[in-house]
């Protein structure tokens, strides 16, 4: 008689053997050892096959029923748990250049766009989920190459090491400069400029280094033309949690019906990791 105890646990998407113990009778034959070896090989092979099935794309037959929490509520919890970690607001933005080649860089997440009028396009067309703002704020420089790459939209990747969670947020990218005639977005641009720290403001100012972007009286100077508010308007969110049992969820924004196309809504569902 023999007994095999084998267990596995996920570790960042990979399966590692945590414990393999065998109790083998002295009379165990060579044939039994061969069977035991083959059993371990099959178990290992199944784990490898499972790893290969893990994908960032949703298969049509891998959708389950709707979940209780939207990506926006999940993200709120993730941010709160990681708020004290230095660099927890660093995210990666991926775009493509005019030749279709991928480009990715790290930027700083600056919060959500809020206080928009109810009749504003971004407010009525999916700008809120569970009564929380969804449009995400960042900033960039007009002289940056990414300015030429945002026309086709982009995808943000946000990894939370404290909770082993990943968010992939896909949507359209909008750049707001000084000549944008949307008053609400101009207010948001000026607020973000004022909220930057002094060294960050100086990086946007040409010529001699200014005193943290402040005048002689210590007041913040107006934002220069090359300072751009960059907004990510989410359309599709892929959430993955690797702590404990793996869990994956897809949230998607839908346009309203023919009678009210301006109104959008979010749906969210669990999928196979």
In total, how many beta strands? 13
- Note the run of SSEs as H and E: EEHEHEEHEEEEEHHEEE
Number of domains: 2
Over the alpha carbons, how many angstroms does the gyration radius reach?
Answer: 25 Å
At the fourth level of CATH, the homologous superfamily of the largest domain is: Electron Transport, Fmn-binding Protein, Chain A
Low-confidence stretches: 1-31, 44-62
Helical residue percent band? 10-25%
Mean pLDDT, as a whole number? 79
| Biggest sheet features | 9 strands, antiparallel
Tell me, what's the shape?
globular
Strand content: 35-45%
> In the CATH classification, which architecture of the largest domain applies?
Roll
Q: Please work out how many helical segments DSSP would assign.
A: 5
CATH topology of the largest domain: Pnp Oxidase, Chain A
CATH class category name of the largest domain: Mainly Beta
Class by SSE composition: alpha+beta
Compute the separation of the termini in Å.
37 Å
List the helices and strands and how they pair.
Blueprint: E1 2-11, E2 14-24, H1 30-53, E3 63-66, H2 71-82, E4 90-96, E5 102-108, H3 121-124, E6 128-129, E7 132-133, E8 136-141, E9 154-160, E10 165-176, H4 183-195, H5 198-202, E11 227-241, E12 247-255, E13 264-271
Antiparallel strand pairs: 1-2, 3-13, 4-5, 4-9, 6-7, 8-11, 9-10, 10-11, 11-12, 12-13
């Amino acid at each position: 008689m023999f007994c095999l105890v084998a267990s596995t646990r996920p570790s960042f998407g990979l399966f590692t053997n945590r414990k393999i113990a065998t109790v083998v009778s002295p009379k165990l034959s060579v044939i039994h050892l061969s069977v035991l070896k083959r059993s371990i090989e099959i178990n290992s092979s199944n784990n490898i096959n499972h790893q290969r099935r893990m994908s960032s794309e949703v298969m049509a037959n891998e959708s389950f029923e709707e979940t209780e929490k939207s990506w926006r509520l999940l993200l709120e919890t993730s941010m709160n748990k990681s708020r004290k970690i230095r660099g927890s607001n660093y995210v990666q933005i991926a775009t493509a250049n005019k030749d279709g080649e991928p480009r990715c860089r790290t930027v700083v997440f600056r919060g959500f766009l809020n206080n928009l009028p109810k009749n504003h396009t971004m407010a009525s067309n999916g700008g809120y989920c569970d009564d929380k703002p969804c449009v995400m704020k960042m900033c960039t420089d007009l002289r940056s190459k990414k300015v030429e790459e945002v026309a086709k939209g982009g995808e943000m990747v946000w990894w939370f090491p404290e909770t082993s969670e990943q968010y992939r947020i896909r949507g359209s990218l909008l750049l707001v400069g000084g000549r944008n005639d949307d008053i609400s977005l101009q207010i948001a641009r000026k607020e973000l400029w004022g909220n930057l720290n002094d060294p960050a403001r100086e990086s946007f100012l040409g010529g001699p280094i200014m005193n943290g972007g402040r005048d002689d009286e210590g007041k913040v100077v107006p934002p220069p033309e090359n300072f751009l508010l960059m907004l990510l308007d989410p359309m599709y969110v892929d959430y993955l949690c690797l702590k404990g049992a793996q869990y994956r969820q897809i949230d998607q924004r839908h346009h309203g019906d023919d009678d009210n196309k301006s109104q959008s809504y979010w749906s969210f569902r669990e999928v196979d990791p």
